[in-house]
Design brief:
Layout lengths: L10 H10 L4 H14 L3 H15 L3 H5 L9 E3 L5 E3 L1 E2 L4 E2 H4 L10 H19 L2 H8 L11 H14 L1
Antiparallel strand pairs: 1-2, 3-4
Helix pairs in contact: 1-2, 1-8, 2-6, 3-6, 3-8, 6-7, 7-8
C-alpha cells in the first residue's frame, strides 16, 4: 500500500481488519490482498472493508456474480427476466465501473480496483467517511443515509485495526 511518508500498512493488518468485519477467510484473504494493492491510505482501506461488508457481507456468490433474484439491485424486465444492475462485493453499477464492468464477475481484484477509484473520489468530494458513504449511495455529502451509523461503526472498527 502506498502513502506518502506514513508507515506502510501490511497485508496482515488489512486481513485482520477485513476478518474483524465478518468476512469468510477465503474471500477475506483475496479482498485484503487487493485492498493492500489499491488503497493508498488507511482510511481508504478501512472504507473499502466497511463498504464490502455492508453491500454484500463478503458473499462469495455475489462476488462471482451468482446473485439471487432479490440481490444485486435486481430489476425485472418486461419479458420477466431478472437483470442485476450491480456487480461484485461493492455492488458497483455499470456507469460507475466504466471499463471494469465486464471484468467484475468473479474478479475480486477488479472489484477492489474499481471501488478504490470510487472511494478516492467520494473522499475528495466529501472529506469524511460518513459523507463518502452518502456520496457513494448517490446522495449529497450532507444528506443522511439510512443505516449510515452502522457503516461508520464498521469503518471505525476496521480503521482501528490498521
Amino acid at each position: 500500500m502506498r502513502h506518502g511518508g506514513a508507515a506502510v500498512l501490511t497485508f496482515t493488518a488489512i486481513l485482520i481488519a477485513v476478518l474483524s468485519l465478518g468476512a469468510p477467510h477465503d474471500t477475506g484473504t483475496e479482498v485484503a490482498a487487493a485492498i493492500a494493492k489499491y488503497a493508498r491510505t488507511p482510511d481508504e482501506a478501512a472504507f473499502l472493508a466497511a463498504w464490502a461488508e455492508h453491500e454484500s457481507h463478503y458473499s462469495a456468490d455475489i462476488a462471482a456474480g451468482n446473485c439471487k433474484r432479490w440481490q444485486c439491485d435486481a430489476h425485472k424486465l418486461p419479458d420477466g427476466t431478472i437483470e442485476h444492475r450491480a456487480r461484485g462485493l461493492f455492488q458497483i453499477h455499470r456507469g460507475a465501473a466504466g471499463a471494469d464492468w465486464d471484468q467484475l464477475h468473479g474478479n475480486i481484484d477488479a472489484q477492489v480496483r474499481s471501488a478504490a477509484r470510487m472511494v478516492r473520489w467520494a473522499m475528495r468530494e466529501c472529506r469524511t467517511p460518513v459523507g463518502a458513504f452518502r456520496r457513494r449511495s448517490g446522495l449529497a455529502c450532507d444528506r443522511k443515509l439510512r443505516g449510515e451509523e452502522a457503516r461508520v461503526r464498521s469503518f471505525q472498527r476496521a480503521r482501528a485495526k490498521l
